[in-house]
Amino acid sequence: MQDDVKEDAHSLAKKIESLEDSKRKLLGHGLEPCAIDDLLLLEKQLERSLSRIRERKNQVFKEQIKKLKEKVNHFAYIYFLI
């Protein structure tokens, strides 16, 4: 039982270290030892992430524009009733 806990803790520590390394690379730190293939893969990952971010940003903008248009229409309706 105790060995399982130690093994799980060790496994989680390795996973955390791997995730921290990935994070550093995504932020552009610690790239010196990376081979060209690693850099190309990292570049593709960043491009996909940037694409998803832009898609989400555009979706949020469209939703905000829709809500603002609804408000404008509502106020115009109220104005013409007066």
Automatic annotation (TrEMBL):
The keyword Transmembrane helix does not apply. Residues 2-63 form a coiled coil. GO terms for cellular component: nucleus. Residues 2-82 form the K-box domain. InterPro entries: TF_Kbox (IPR002487). GO terms for molecular function: DNA-binding transcription factor activity. The keyword Ion transport does not apply. Keywords: Coiled coil. This is K-box domain-containing protein. It comes from Gossypium armourianum.
